[in-house]
Amino acid sequence: MPYTWGEDGTRIHYDRWGDPDGEPLLLIQGLGADRRGWALQRRALGRRYQCVALDNRGVGRSDAPPGPYDLAMMAGDAMAVLDDAG
Known about the structure:
Layout (H helix, E strand, L loop, with lengths): L2 E3 L5 E8 L4 E6 L13 H7 E6 L16 H15 L1
Parallel strand pairs: 3-4
Antiparallel strand pairs: 1-2, 2-4
C-alpha cells in the first residue's frame, strides 16, 4: 500500500485499484473516516475508473501530526497523492 508525503513531511497513505486505462477518480472520505469507507463501491468503481482513495492526515494509516488542519493543507495532501499515483 503506497504512501506519499505532504508539504510538511506528513506521511499520507492511499490505495489504488481499478481499470488502468480508465479515467482517474480520487476518492476522499469525510471527516474522521478513512479509505475503507469505499469498500462497498470498490468493485463497481474499479470496472470503469483508475481509483485512488486516501486516508486524510489524522486517520487510518496516514500520520497524525498535531493540528489544527486546514483546507489548504488537506488539498495539498490530495495533490501529493495524485502526483505520486501518476
